[in-house]
Amino acid sequence: MGDYTWEQAGHTHFSSRRKSRWFRLCTLIILASLLYLSRNLWFRTHPSTEELARRAGYLNLCRYIKTPSGPPLNFHARSKSDRFSPEAKPTLIKNATIWTSGKNGTEVIYGDLLLLKGLIRGVGAIAPSLVSGLDIEVVDANGAWVTPGLVDLHSHLGVGSAPELDGNQTGADDTNSVKAPILPWLRSLDGLNTHDDGYELARSGGVTTAQILPGSANNIGGQAFIIKLRETTERTPSSMLVEPPYTLNGSHFDHNLPPRWRHMNTIHTYQKIERGFKSNTGENPSRVYSMSRMDTGWNFRQAYDTARKIRDQQDDFCAKAEAGAWRELKDSTFPESLQWEALVDVLRGRVKLSVHCYEAVDLDVIVRLSNEFKFPVASFHHAGQTYLVPDLLRKTWGGMPSIALFAANFRKKREAYRGSEFAPRILASDGFPIVMKSDHSVINSRYLLHEAAQAHYFGLPTNVALLSITATPADAMGLGHRIGHIEEGYDADVIVWDSHPLSLAATPQQVFIDGIPQLKAPEVSIKPFAFQSPPNTPDFDKEAADASAYQGLPPLEPRSVQHSIFTNVSSLYTRSTDDISVQDYPQSVIVHDGKIVCSGECSRHSSDDKHAEIINLEGGSIVLGLTIYGPPLGLTEIRLEPSTSDGTVFNPLTGNLPAILEDSLIRAIDGLQFGGRNTLLAYRAGVTAGVTAPSGSFVQGSSTAFSLGASNLLRNGSIQSDVAVHVAITKNSAHSVSTQIAALRAMLLGKGSDAMLSSVRAGTATLVVDVNSADIMASLLRLKREYETQLGKTLRMTFAGAIESHLIASDIAHAGVSVIVTQPKPFPTTWDQRRFLGGPPLTADSLVSALLAAGVQVGVGLQDEFEARNLRWEVARLALASNGTIDQTTALALATVNVEKALGIEVDMPQDLVAYKGGDAFGFEGKPVAVISAQFGRTDLFE
Ligand SMILES: *[C@@H]1O[C@H](CO)[C@@H](O)[C@H](O)[C@H]1NC(C)=O
Ligand SMILES: *[C@@H]1O[C@H](CO)[C@@H](O)[C@H](O)[C@H]1NC(C)=O
Ligand SMILES: *[C@@H]1O[C@H](CO)[C@@H](O)[C@H](O)[C@H]1NC(C)=O
Ligand SMILES: *[C@@H]1O[C@H](CO)[C@@H](O)[C@H](O)[C@H]1NC(C)=O
Ligand SMILES: *[C@@H]1O[C@H](CO)[C@@H](O)[C@H](O)[C@H]1NC(C)=O
């Protein structure tokens, strides 16, 4: 530039050259300016390498947030599982009946199954080239049923604790945080205990994969994770995960990887959380909150709105980035929030959302929210009233959700009161994908299969029932590309069963997870031929239609007749006091006023009675009515609604016993109520009598025996007003075990004048002790001996619960103490129960078969009022699992004469009989259609 100035100044006197010089000068100036401008432009359009990387990163992130979740396209080209472990030896399962879950659950392939490197590599006819040269384990299935491993869509396994050991932070185990209602940033993985007793039990029932959800104490409980249920060599929670999302280690992962499904649960219900707890560090109780549905609704909207704002800011950012408006983004970063990122992903449709929701009022809110904020719902859980509102569910944004249900666990709270055993079949016929789930440990995950089998019994088609615990939940969790099917390229999770999986008490012979056998020494015998095909289930079309018509509360009272004739009867069980006898093929049975007047050749009687109701049992049986002990039937209607129940009795150990009670025991008969839904459902399922004790800790009071079919106490309701005196002794109490036993001793040796207590002291009534620990039972045997030695009288004692009683079975037999097993499906809820006997396939003996073998007088009861109706299946299960040591008559005795004897019932039990159509009492083919009631002098009909 300086040169030109010089030229300009020094050579202006040459006029002809001046013109051209000026011209040159101008040109140069223009050129220089252009150069300057283009240099600037260059730098503007060619940013630094760091800036370039930053922009590329953002563009990649912007592409990533729009990429749908799912497996990579070449997923099935894999030749080895990402979960492969060398313990998985090449395995050939020969001669199997393989239910693949293909063709809508109707495909069955007869042949072999090849498992290699954690994957299924051949189904049916295996090419010899695939196995040649392999050191292969051969399993001969002998024609047994083989299915994919079971998938539990709703479990709290590992976050809840079995046995319960949570520092007594009541309700505050790792299932729930009680810090706030909205907690989408919490992760169930952070609380996953790898040493929970539930894993082995769940595996032994064929469950191979489970979604571990945070609990239901919140509106948004947190992120769920999918685990496989085998032990890993690494022994960590993380190594149990199946396809965990990349967000696991933070939000700054490689966005070139295809996104994987994430999982979360939200809960819409009336939340009453009074479980604030004192932490061990002495902090104040954390927040205690109670919310109406309106609060809950707003909590959701506020949370989703927060996430929506962040999502919109991200989308704005990306729109600018994609348009190249980097100058506008010069000072901004991608809008992110570690707290809200998971909920933002819900709005982006990248989260398989599980919504815990029962009632129409709540389902309505969720469907409305899903449309307001535009997010899909993968599955509604519990979903008690979904069968009543199919049109609403179809409006869920993003398509029809799966519905995850219990088979029969209803009525515990208002929102579950209208639940129906027919919901699965009704929803399936409306086209919804049906999932049966455990909510472990609400239902022990080991019996997930039993949920599907019950739904099948009540009318869910066979293919849909099997899909409901395999492919359908796998799809609902976004893992349908690798689990829930038997197909080449899928994970080697397969079960070899001992019978058709929908038959009663089907049990795995072996369980493979990632190709690794899980049962070390399976103790299981193959079930009889009749159990090798799906049960031919009864017709419940009318009951299902009624469930809908009456919105979940169909009338349950029977229709009564005086005279009835049963035809086509294949067996008739009767009893005289303690003896049960069976008459085979009586064909017809004639009943007048609740009494059998003829069985067998009855033509004369039948011609006598033109007005009799004729019931064709289609080869079914007439069997003794069962007696239920354990559930608070008759004292509880809706367990979590205090106004519907008798309530809890005072605990004398707390010292606040009102003086007016003096030393009298509380009597269950005084609080008895009839006509409850659990009571009538049990009656309609063959349970005709109940013995119930008052509910309480330590001294419960005096139990009563009553008729389930009675309309009230004054109409033949009572069988024996006072049966036994009940106490509970447990480590799980605010008072020491030694204090409880000392108090019991004082009660027995003391002066109190209560009539029932006096009968116990005199040896004419039974003391029933609710107890589980073998050590406490041993102390009680000592107390019995002490009492008898000191007073020279007999102390009649029975243990109820008694889950560890096999450990001292011969001592119990020797002491003449009876046992009522109330958990025929054992689960170690508390420390007192940890040394339970698993039964097949974990141990050859069940608790009941072990006690019978030791000569103990054993009865069977149950715990929960909803399951009272399942009593016949529970005793039948024990028989089926006993390898022939428990026959049907013994099974029947367990729930009739044995349990009555153990309780010390003194009166003659009413000779009630139950008629089953199409099958017997001991499987999934018979349908209870009538009670022949000697006591009421009538026949009660259910159809
Ligand atoms: C699957 O089977 C169920 C029950 O048999 C049936 O209702 C349904 O329509 C079938 N679905 C398809 C896609 O075939
Ligand atoms: C498969 O097992 C069944 C049942 O044990 C048996 O009858 C059949 O012969 C077996 N088939 C083969 C090919 O081994
Ligand atoms: C991060 O998470 C992935 C699963 O998404 C896992 O495979 C990987 O090992 C983790 N990385 C680290 C460093 O823990
Ligand atoms: C079942 O009983 C038979 C003999 O009655 C016995 O050979 C077999 O080992 C038993 N099976 C199991 C699993 O205990
Ligand atoms: C556990 O805590 C609750 C509430 O603080 C208390 O009522 C209960 O007695 C405690 N249980 C034991 C075994 O200490």
From TrEMBL:
Q: Which UniProt keywords apply?
A: Membrane, Transmembrane, Transmembrane helix
User: So which domain of life are we looking at?
Assistant: Eukaryota
- On whether Membrane is a keyword of this UniProt record, the answer is yes
Residue limits of the Amidohydrolase-related domain?
424-513
This protein is called Amidohydrolase-related domain-containing protein
Presence of keyword Transmembrane: yes
PANTHER family tied to this protein? ALPHA-D-RIBOSE 1-METHYLPHOSPHONATE 5-TRIPHOSPHATE DIPHOSPHATASE
The residues that cross the membrane are 22-42
Extract the Gene3D superfamilies matched here: Metal-dependent hydrolases (3.20.20.140)
- Any GO molecular function: hydrolase activity, acting on carbon-nitrogen (but not peptide) bonds
